[in-house]
Design a protein that fits this description.
This protein has 281 residues and is of the alpha/beta class. The chain contains 10 helices and 12 strands. It starts with a helix and ends with a strand. Strands 5, 6, 7, 8, 9, 10, 11 and 12 form an 8-stranded mixed sheet that branches. A 4-stranded antiparallel sheet has the order 2-3-1-4, covered by helices on one side. The longest helix is centred in the C-terminal third of the chain and has 19 residues. α4 packs across α5 and α8 crosses α9. β2 and β3 form a beta hairpin. It is globular. The chain folds into 2 domains: 62 residues, Alpha-Beta Plaits, CATH 3.30.70; 205 residues, 3-Layer(aba) Sandwich (Rossmann fold).
Length: 281
């Protein structure tokens, strides 16, 4: 029954959700602005920054968009940066960062104070990241073209937080990218899990002692999610954290082990997985 419910949700039209740029406006203020533009916004149930839009025609032509008051981003994706919890003044490494939805959210959470090194291999996507930062008024993001599988051109142990939002089969976002039903092959989860583990290990190498590392995907396969984390933890030097106490009221978004797991048919969001890890000092 659950598999059928997930399939039905993946065949439905997804909502359009935006994230408030809290450096410029609060959510209530943005709601009023988008109401005036005819977008029929309503607050998201989980993210304190999100608005679901009943209408979206002309969204990117409106004044609110041009003023950088919001970023289009699914509610589940908004939870990823929140879970990592970067603080003002910290140095953060964002791997596979472009086009920058989570990068820009972290910059907002940091009050645009500190530094975010945003790594991606695609020049085209890095251009989009730069454009988003400019529109949103963010100054602390340093885009850098590099392969996240490494070796990265940074000093090991020099970052307070690392986000590894790795490439994956994308089976959590089929409702947005239905072509993946025909594109993804049976051998892809295993093949991608090796790349994901390589990126995770490289991110771990960049992290300071006691620093936090967040691994996230937008897929639902065990090989790419729990399997990668289990293999990584065998390396030693890291512990898996259970962040549920830090997010009262959102316990239903987490597994018993403390993994974030959002599902389209349960939560109305895209399907995301995330694991929060701390490096032993």
């Amino acid at each position: 029954e659950e598999a059928e419910a997930l399939c039905r949700a993946n065949n439905a039209v997804p909502p359009l959700t935006v994230r408030t740029n809290t450096l410029k406006i609060d959510r209530e203020g943005l709601l009023r602005r988008l109401e005036a533009e005819g977008m029929e916004p309503r607050a998201t149930p989980y993210s304190p920054w999100g608005l679901i839009l009943g209408k979206a025609e002309g969204l990117t032509e409106g004044e609110a968009f041009r003023e950088g008051l919001f970023q289009v981003q699914d509610e589940a994706a908004q939870l990823i940066s929140w879970l990592l919890g970067p603080k003002p003044g910290q140095r953060v490494l964002d791997l596979c960062a472009a086009p920058g939805g989570k990068t820009t959210h972290m910059a907002e959470l940091m009050g645009d104070e500190g530094e975010i090194v945003a790594v991606d291999v695609s020049p085209r996507k890095l251009k989009l990241l730069k454009e988003n930062c400019l529109r949103l008024g963010l100054r602390i993001v340093r885009p850098r073209r590099a392969d996240a599988t490494g070796p990265l051109p940074f000093r090991p142990g020099s970052f307070d937080r690392v986000l590894a939002d790795v490439p994956c089969t994308g089976l959590g976002v089929l409702r947005r990218h239905p072509d993946a039903k025909w594109r993804v092959r049976p051998e892809d989860p295993e093949r991608l899990s090796r790349i994901q583990l390589q990126i995770l290990r490289e991110g771990a190498r960049m992290l300071k002692g006691e620093g936090l590392l967040l691994y996230s995907t937008c897929t639902l396969t065990l090989e790419e999610n729990e399997g990668v984390i289990e293999e990584f933890l065998r390396d030693g030097g890291f512990e898996l954290l259970d962040p549920r106490e830090e997010f009262p009221g959102l316990e239903g978004l987490f597994s018993p082990e403390g993994f974030l797991l959002t599902l389209p048919h349960r939560h109305g969001t895209d399907g995301f997985f995330a694991a929060l890890l701390r490096k032993r000092g």
